[in-house]
Design goal:
about 180 residues; alpha+beta; three-stranded antiparallel beta sheet; 6 strands; about 20% strand; elongated; binds zinc ion
Length: about 180
């Protein structure tokens, strides 16, 4: 690590401490005596995702985060929920210790968590991920959720189901299906 001030190639460690997931080192340049900080962190082994078409691509946390964030858009989830969810999944993936994992398995992990968190986010994610091509499949999924909620009491962690317009849409859909 070259000195960020003068570019000299050597420095000495004047302090080092363990932080969350790595080591923080306070360094001093041996040439200009400027102080700077470096972090040492374990680089997880590469993880590849096998997509539906069989192609492989390196696991991308941002991609995972974006997908979850989209599904959770405007939902009344506490700040940090989405990031934590992505973190948990990432940690679990690396914990599996596999070199490759099917994208479907990751999708299932996300869905499982969203289901216990927020039904709307779950349905949104499922509709993209499972590529609901017609309204019938989507309706089946919603009906499954609604009926499972009627038969079982609402988990306390669950946010209010289908508020406002989304509730109306489902109600209309259900009415229509009864006719
Ligand atoms: Zn220097």
């Amino acid at each position: 690590m070259n000195c960020p001030y003068c570019g000299y190639h050597d420095s000495k460690v004047i302090d080092s401490r363990v932080v969350n997931d790595g080591i923080r080192r306070r360094r001093q340049c041996l040439s200009c005596a400027s102080r700077f900080t470096t972090y040492e962190r374990l680089q997880p082994a590469s993880l590849f995702v096998i997509k539906k078409d069989g192609k492989r691509e390196e696991f991308n946390r941002i991609k995972l985060l974006t997908g979850i964030r989209k599904a959770c858009e405007k939902r009344p989830l506490p700040t940090g929920t989405v990031d934590k969810l992505a973190d948990d999944i990432e940690a679990e993936l690396y914990h599996l210790g596999k070199a490759e994992i099917p994208s479907a398995a990751i999708g299932d992990m996300v869905m499982e968590r969203l289901k216990s968190l927020d039904y709307i986010a779950y349905i949104r994610f499922a509709s993209v991920y499972r590529e609901f091509t017609d309204i019938t499949t989507l309706k089946q999924e919603v009906d499954t959720l609604v009926s499972s909620e009627v038969s079982a009491s609402l988990p306390t962690s669950q946010l209010p189901l289908l508020p406002d317009e989304e509730l109306e849409t489902v109600a209309k859909r259900r009415q229509r299906s009864r006719k």
